Amino acid sequence: MRTLTTPVALTKCLEAIKEYAFVKSDFPVILTLEDHLTPKLQDNFAKMANQIFGEMLYCPTTDCITEFPSPASLKNMVLISTKPPKEFPQTDCANNHVSNGSESSEDETWGQEQQDSMAIQKNEDMKVNGEEMEDISTSYYKSNQQGAREYRHLITIHGGKSEGTMKDRLKVDGGKVKRLSLSEKKLKSASESHGAELIRFTQKNILRIYPKGERVQSTNFRPHLGWMYGAQMVAFNMQGHGKSLRLMQGMFKANGGCGYVKKPEFLIQEIVHNEAFDPKRRLPVKQILKVKVYKGVGWRSDFSPTHFDRFSPPDFYTKVCIAGVGADSVKMKTSVKMDNWYPVWDEEFEFQLTVPELALLRIEVKDKDKGSDDFAGQTCLPVSELRHGFRSVALCDRKGKKYNSVKLLLGFHLETLNIL
């Protein structure tokens, strides 16, 4: 599938990954490949990856992985995630063509697999007897198998099949673990009819969610739906700077911002008596969070005097919201402080949370206008990372970059309830 981006040499990509992969964090980097390579090119990739990454490249010791290694055990390692190449039965090599060694994409409908351009073609003009053709086919088969083995040896996370019913796709293999990719549309459909199977699948396997193809303007979907059912990878259009991307940034502020956040125990524990966690079910209140918004500072330093209003100071108010399961999602806001660069609200909000482990506190400051209100800063924080007391919280621009001076003075109080 062609895109509007300029092609980049694979070697340059791999070398850039090697140089910058672990600058911010030493947790593993996963390279998800969407390949439609011939066996020969798969072999070339294997040699290239081994040469560039060297000991940084993690290669599993067996083709049949029964449990994925923990991220902590793979620090400073690069992992490959893709569909494994097909096996080449020797009897197929004497046919008119040989398939290209990789299965059809699990993300997009690519149509039928392209035929291997190097496959042996029949040619009536060629005077090759049966014995010579058998020798050629055997040689080609061995070459393909060798290339496929080298490529397969690199793959840690095997892509799963994309065919069959949703129940078939979510079926947990007895021992082998895999990765399954679903579009946001298919996730929504599966969550409505196969919620328990989704959670059971993600307890051992990896589920990746990606935006629907209709999002041509790089918008994003609500990531919480994937997280609530245990999806480990929720893909984003990184150029779509909206609320959804801010939620993703907030989620991964946890665990030191390393890019890996452990799932809550109720999404990890084995399902007993088919009683899986159901994010649609109303659960008892587990935690009460109180957020007090005292005041805000810094806009006068980071913005021009006429940025918000041409002839008067801005009229700021703060939105305080919870993003999480349906029962916990709440939106509140302070009063508007008119004509003031240094607003003081001194207002408190209470949130009763049933699943605090999946809750994010979203804060946004706006300037009240007659038309649409002007953006004045935002941040998103994992509730699980909040602590009691006063906090000076830096606000960010629409893209998530911190302002130099803009901050809110907040107070947090958390009370965990005893649930029988």
Describe, in plain words, how this protein is organized in 3D.
The chain is an alpha/beta fold. It has two domains: 201 residues, Alpha-Beta Barrel (TIM Barrel), CATH 3.20.20; 130 residues, C2 domain (Immunoglobulin-like). It has a four-stranded antiparallel β-sheet with strand order 10-7-14-13. A hairpin with a 5-residue loop joins strand 13 and strand 14. Helix 1 runs parallel beside helix 2 and helix 2 packs parallel to helix 3. About 12% of the residues have low confidence.
Give the oligomeric state.
single chain
Mean pLDDT, to the nearest integer, reads 85
Beta-strand content bin: 15-25%
CATH architecture of the largest domain: Alpha-Beta Barrel
Shape estimate:
globular
List the secondary-structure elements in sequence, H or E.
HEHEHEHEHHEHEHEHEEEEEEE
Helix content: 10-25%
Characterize the main sheet.
Answer: 4 strands, antiparallel
Provide the number of structural domains: 2
Structural class: alpha/beta
Return residue spans where pLDDT drops below 50 for at least 5 consecutive residues. 88-105, 107-138
- Number of DSSP-assigned strands: 14
End-to-end CA span: 54 Å
Radius of gyration: 27 Å
- Lateral strand order in the biggest sheet: 10-7-14-13
